[in-house]
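[recover] target loaded
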């Protein structure tokens, strides 16, 4: 019934939209509708490329990698180290990202030399040269620009960012973006991406939690569901990027779950959320998939506010495989994104690397993936999505139980192990037949339960000591005032 609704509703809405636009075109001068123009050097909006309703993708296999927030603010601590690393900020995750046909990130700052004009606690801008860190370093080629910092440098910041995007994209290395524009119609319009060499058309809508009267795509636009449905009628895959929700909490609200379910019901295949700075759960809903929050990925902050809530500064790479227009597999790759504190488990230490995401392996992956499972179980939904362990990764159950004998991403990248602050290659690539790999559904006790329990206890004790020191310091400051 749900699949029938997802076929008929977008078709009917698209027919209505095409009929109304056809009559309006008679009274509009050619080229007068900004939302229907070809966006320079990046593709077209959905309005300009609508075709016969229905999905006609090839059957090619392709991979979309999704990550969360990326920002390197001017004047913040550690920015010299970030600039020194440049594209190598992503050196540790590049073997994973290189297997993607599309690599998505939320760019959480305007790229401009203009000063911030918004009065807020943390206004940020990023120097234009830093866009190359993402484009060359990931390499990333698909961006959301819709977030709570998009307007920090006012309209000038948006204009400069859009100009930089157009200068950066090229025929031999295209990039695509969505979420800001000359007005709300352009900012909230679906942008079409022709997946390179795959014969698949993806539409992306990028939204933030602002009002519909701004130049940033709005989560509260009254016609949002209609736009999603129209995009579904003229594209093979629809992705909705959302910058939304409270910070430093690992569980979405029931209202957020209902909202994101509505996007899938309207025709979206994938909902990707960010802004919380920490990871939240995932869910298979209907024929679609939801990442409730991807967390920080490469964010040039001190990353200390999580101590107030006890949140974990994990991140993840969501590797989403499609077979043409069909969602085929979802893999969760655990990542460490703490800029200010090393992580010690037993004899192993993972160093803090400023704005440099580090994939997790061994005991660190054991610890993080066990918590990933608990985050997904905590999503307030009728049927939490089972997650299956394969090596140092999790695969989402898309309805067929444990993953097939050839999980698509395991053989695509090298294993990288960290110990005593050193990076070294280990074991080459892994295939699905490696004898060391064990497949388990993490419903109860994790692997190495006693070791993990001891490690968690030690971690909590260290955090308690840090909190006690911080409270003592605050008391001293109050006494000295």
């Amino acid at each position: 019934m749900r699949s029938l609704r997802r076929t008929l509703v977008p078709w009917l809405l698209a027919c209505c939209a095409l009929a109304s636009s056809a009559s309006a075109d008679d009274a509009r001068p050619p080229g007068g509708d900004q939302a229907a123009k070809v966006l320079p050097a990046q593709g077209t909006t959905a309005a300009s490329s609508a075709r016969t309703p229905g999905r006609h993708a090839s059957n090619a296999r392709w991979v979309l990698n999704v990550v969360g927030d990326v920002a390197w603010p001017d004047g913040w601590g550690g920015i010299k180290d970030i600039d020194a690393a440049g594209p190598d900020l992503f050196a540790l995750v590049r073997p994973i990202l290189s297997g993607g046909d599309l690599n998505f990130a939320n760019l959480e700052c305007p790229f401009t030399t203009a000063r911030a004009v918004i009065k807020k606690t943390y206004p940020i801008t990023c120097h234009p040269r830093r866009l190359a860190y993402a484009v060359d370093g990931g390499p990333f080629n698909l961006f959301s620009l819709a977030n709570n910092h998009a307007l920090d440098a006012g309209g000038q910041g948006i204009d400069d960012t859009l100009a930089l995007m157009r200068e950066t994209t090229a025929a031999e290395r295209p990039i695509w973006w969505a979420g800001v524009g000359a007005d709300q119609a352009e900012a909230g319009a679906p942008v079409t991406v022709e997946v390179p060499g795959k014969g698949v058309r993806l539409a992306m809508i990028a939204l933030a939690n602002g009002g519909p009267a701004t130049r940033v795509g709005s989560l509260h636009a009254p016609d949002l569901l209609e736009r999603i449905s129209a995009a579904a009628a003229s594209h093979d895959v629809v992705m909705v990027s959302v910058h939304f929700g409270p910070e430093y909490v690992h569980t979405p609200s029931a209202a957020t779950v209902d909202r994101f379910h509505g996007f899938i019901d309207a025709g979206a295949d994938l909902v990707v959320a960010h802004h919380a700075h920490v990871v939240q759960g995932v869910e298979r809903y209907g024929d679609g998939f939801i990442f409730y929050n991807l967390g920080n990925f490469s964010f040039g902050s001190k990353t200390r506010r999580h101590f107030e809530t006890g949140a974990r500064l994990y991140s993840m790479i969501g590797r989403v495989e499609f077979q043409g227009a069909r969602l085929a597999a979802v893999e969760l790759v655990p990542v460490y994104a703490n800029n200010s504190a090393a992580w010690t488990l037993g004899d192993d230490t993972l160093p803090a690397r400023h704005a440099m995401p580090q994939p997790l392996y061994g005991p660190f992956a054991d610890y993080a993936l066990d918590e990933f499972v608990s985050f997904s179980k905590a999503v307030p939904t009728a049927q939490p999505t089972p997650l299956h362990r394969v090596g140092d990764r999790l695969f989402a159950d898309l309805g067929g139980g444990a993953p097939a004998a050839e999980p698509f991403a395991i053989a695509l990248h090298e294993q990288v192990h960290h110990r005593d602050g050193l990076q070294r290659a280990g074991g080459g690539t892994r295939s699905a037949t490696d004898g060391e790999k064990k497949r388990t559904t993490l419903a109860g006790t994790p692997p190495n339960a006693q070791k993990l329990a001891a490690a968690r206890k030690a971690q909590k004790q260290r955090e308690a000591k840090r909190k006690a020191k911080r409270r003592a310091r605050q008391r001293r400051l109050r006494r000295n005032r």
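[recover] notes: Residues 61-418 form a domain with the Purple Acid Phosphatase; chain A, domain 2 fold (CATH 3.60.21.10).
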